[in-house]
Design a protein that fits this description.
Elements lengths: L1 E13 L19 E10 L2 E7 H7 L1 E7 L4 E4 L1 E3 L11 H8 L4 H6 L4 H10 L2 H17 L2 E7 L6 H17 L3 E9 L10 H21 L2 H4 L5 E4 L8 H13 L3 E6 L7 H7 L4 E4 L8 H5 L4 E4 L1 H6 L8 H6 L4 E3 L13 H11 L4 H8 L1 H6 L17 E4 L6 H4 L6 E6 L2 E4 L1
Parallel strand pairs: 1-4, 1-5, 6-7, 7-8, 8-9, 9-10, 10-11, 11-12, 12-13
Antiparallel strand pairs: 1-2, 2-3, 5-14, 14-15, 15-16
Helix pairs in contact: 5-6, 6-7, 7-9, 14-15
The chain binds N-(iminomethyl)-L-glutamic acid and fe (iii) ion.
């Protein structure tokens, strides 16, 4: 049979396939679906077969044939938690932290998220799009083929809508597929100082309804891509009651739920988010261990973010190993943002997770592919090399997938295919 694309003879085909697109937990996270001398057949951008090379070569002839001898073929990475849409940078704060100021001290002094808010409010839509496009290009070169993207640097209705517009423009014009999240409750804008409840009212009564109108008319709704609501449940941001107001309002409007919880302070947001049926709870750096069972017993994915700990020079990391052993379905992310993690690379997140959170390379890869897809509600559609899924595929310049985490500071991604089209290589 004649097809569009045949990749064959891979030293390792790593499918990351999962039962019906459900997240892997426990020992299952070590199963990356490894096939030696493997191949993938693609027609119309969709995977039509994956398995032993010899069989595929006997069955198909292709318009384009790629010999992947000595290479690894794996799914494109899904980055399930990003703040990649912004303007400016926070290099000055990087230097302040080097000199001893903490992330929270900088935030309390009016820097941090609010300083990026100022840059976003003054930037045009075009400037935000072009600055973000360069970051997406970098992520793509490091193998990310789908990324969730949060608003949350506008913090007023018009600026939050400007960020949503940027997300849609970029999704339409960049190979990386984006999944939008509204995060108006990311920080308190200065004009609401001392009036957090009033700001929450603005988010709930004005921003969220307008965000929903935006979504309903967007390409995301048209394509059945979910829309999420997220909140920063943290001291000096939003407490549990305020976070609950935001998430419940979003949920009532049809959005799916995510929450930043337990990054610096264990406020109890995790329990609230899991009760609301959150698709993911993210950070979990200081989650009390007696809450691990709560997540493990739910469908909620635990997204751990070691790039933040690394970037903040912290010796403390979420105990990924203990969480995994407790049965939590874990995902990894870069959290790419200008403050806590200016990192475009999922393999870098894997490298840190293996060293400081004691994940095996196999577990880190599962956490960056199929489980990350589940963390954005897309496990049945992306995140693995399986028949019927889009051909979002990487060819790595190594013959052992474990190099993804073993090596750091380099880039093993040789080529990237998005829906069967080569977009890097
Ligand atoms: O996930 N924790 C809150 N939000 C981001 C940081 C954003 C920023 O510093 O600009 C995070 O770490
Ligand atoms: Fe975040």
């Amino acid at each position: 049979m004649q097809i569009d694309l045949l990749i064959h003879s891979a030293a390792q085909l790593v499918t990351c396939a999962a039962q019906e697109g459900t997240a892997k937990r426990g020992a299952m996270m070590r199963d990356v679906g490894l096939i030696q001398d493997g191949g993938v057949a693609v027609q119309d951008g969709v995977i039509i077969a994956a398995g032993a090379s010899a069989q595929l070569c006997a069955e198909y002839t292709a318009a384009r044939t790629i010999d992947a001898a000595g290479k690894v073929v794996c799914p494109g990475f899904v980055d399930p938690h990003t703040h990649v849409v912004y303007a400016g940078n926070r290099i000055d704060e990087f230097e302040m932290r080097i000199s001893g100021a903490s992330y929270m001290e900088i935030m309390e002094a009016g820097g941090g998220i609010v300083s990026t808010m100022e840059a976003v409010r003054t930037a045009s839509l075009g400037q935000i799009v072009e600055q973000t496009r360069a970051r997406l290009d970098n992520m793509l070169r490091h193998g990310t083929t789908t990324a969730e993207v949060k608003t949350g640097y506008g913090l007023d209705t018009a600026s939050e809508l400007k960020l949503l517009a940027a997300v849609e423009t970029l999704d339409a014009s960049h190979p990386i597929d984006l999944i939008p999240t509204f995060m108006g409750a990311h920080a308190l804008p200065p004009e609401y100082a001392g009036c957090t409840d009033d700001y929450v009212t603005l988010v709930v009564e004005e921003m969220l309804p307008q965000a929903v109108i935006w979504y309903q008319q967007s390409r995301f709704a048209e394509r059945g891509v979910p829309f999420f609501v997220d909140v920063f449940c943290e001291q000096n941001a939003f407490d549990v009651a305020q976070s609950r107001r935001v998430l419940e309002a979003g949920k009532a409007l049809g959005l799916q739920v995510k929450a930043h919880v337990d990054e610096f302070t264990p406020l109890g947001g995790l329990r609230m988010a899991v009760e609301l049926g959150a698709v993911s709870v993210d950070h979990l750096d200081v989650t009390p261990p007696d809450e691990f069972a709560l997540i493990a017993a739910s469908d909620t994915i635990g997204v751990i973010i070691p790039t933040v700990n690394f970037n903040l020079g912290s010796a403390h990391f979420a105990p990924g190993r203990a969480m995994l052993d407790a049965g939590i379905a874990l995902a990894l992310t870069t959290d790419i943002n200008p403050g806590s993690a200016p990192c475009p690379s999922m393999p870098m997140a894997m490298a840190i997770a293996c060293r400081y959170q004691h994940l095996l390379p196999s577990e880190a890869l599962t956490a960056s592919t199929i489980n990350a897809a589940c963390a954005v509600g897309m496990g049945a559609r992306i995140g693995s090399i399986e028949v019927g899924k889009p051909a979002d595929i990487l060819i790595l310049n190594t013959s052992d997938y474990r190099y993804l985490a073993y090596q750091f500071g380099g880039n093993l991604v040789e080529s990237v295919y998005k829906r069967g089209e080569m977009v890097v290589g």
